[in-house]
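Justification of resources, computational component.

The compute hours requested in this renewal are based largely on the per-chain cost of generating structure records like the one below. Each record pairs the submitted sequence with a full structure-token output. That output is archived, and it is also reused by downstream analysis tasks.
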Amino acid sequence: MKKIVKMSLGVSIIIASTQNMCADTLAEAFEKGKVSGEIKSQYFQKEVANKKVSVWNNGGNLSYVTGDFYGFKSGVTLQAASITASDLDNAPTAYNKDQNVSGAVLSEAYLQYSIANTRGKVGRQYISTPLVEGSGSRMFRESFEGLVISNTDISNTTIVAAYVDKEQYRTKIASGGTEVKAVSDFEQVQDGAYTVYVNNKSVKNLTVDAQYALIDSNTNSVDDTTAFYAAGSYNINPFTIETQTYQTDNGNTSNSRGSAYAVNLLGNFDKLSLGAAYSTIAKDANIVAGLGNGADYLYTGPWIYGGVYDADTDAYKLSAGYKITTDLSFDLIYGAWKTASNPTASETDFIATYAFNKNFSTKLVFATYDNLADESYRSRLYASYKF
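The structure output for this chain reads:
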């Protein structure tokens, strides 16, 4: 990765050195740059061992991307958040993993070059693929540092190849692997991770995804971690049927290979949407979902808790949504899973979404739990203004 960074810096110097020859063009690239951002507020509350805890955060992000300059672009994104209020006396570390943090981080700082149907992007950046994706459901969206190359030369096909060596989490990861009340640095991803992703839409109404990822182990006691993901989605209005599989190796010396299979049936009937999903994971080993909390694509994951990737797990999810108007919608989700240690866990989600206009939207989520550790409910209120 150091070689990649040095190379990108070298390209930047070459661009800068041409400023005297085409100063107007370079200046125009910056003048045509675009500023975008988001102001957001999030209130989280949950009950732990019959005691309520809560945290209220406010903040947002600000991005700037230059205009095109001979195929080159550059962009930066700054994220910041502050704890406005909290009630954590009953469980001081309850939100250390995701929300109990104030500060700022430069989540994107990249150089991009595009030629024909190929684009390369090096530096800090957001990545969104099934096995490598940072979650954006908290105040701090997760980001990565590395090199991403994408190509669309093949008709109806997108190919992405990437190398990632660092990840910015929701909060800082301390030595020992625990999350702490601090803004995340870009933490080393073992000895780096490699991935190739393909998306194909050549057949009418059919979308196929496939991805392979390898994480180099930084210890002799554990082998490299590998994951293969494949999914297919076929639409016959008003129905869509989806299938997916994970085939992974968690790197342990024994019982390391895991496999998962899932199916999802969706129906859209004007304002009403319905869904039913089922997944099963073999007894051999846990599934490696991927890098980042956004790498959570299992069909049976409920809205808050997400998918369960433990070995010997059967799960299903039922969902229903109704769009009252173009601005107001309600969703009901029930997800249940059976593991060797917990045969009856479930989550029920009640979700209301309202958009005041194209920029300002709100979402209320209330989830109840059965037989999930010592939690009985979680509630979240999101407010977002994008510009």
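Residues 5-23 have pLDDT under 50 and may be disordered. Helices lie at 2-17, 23-31.
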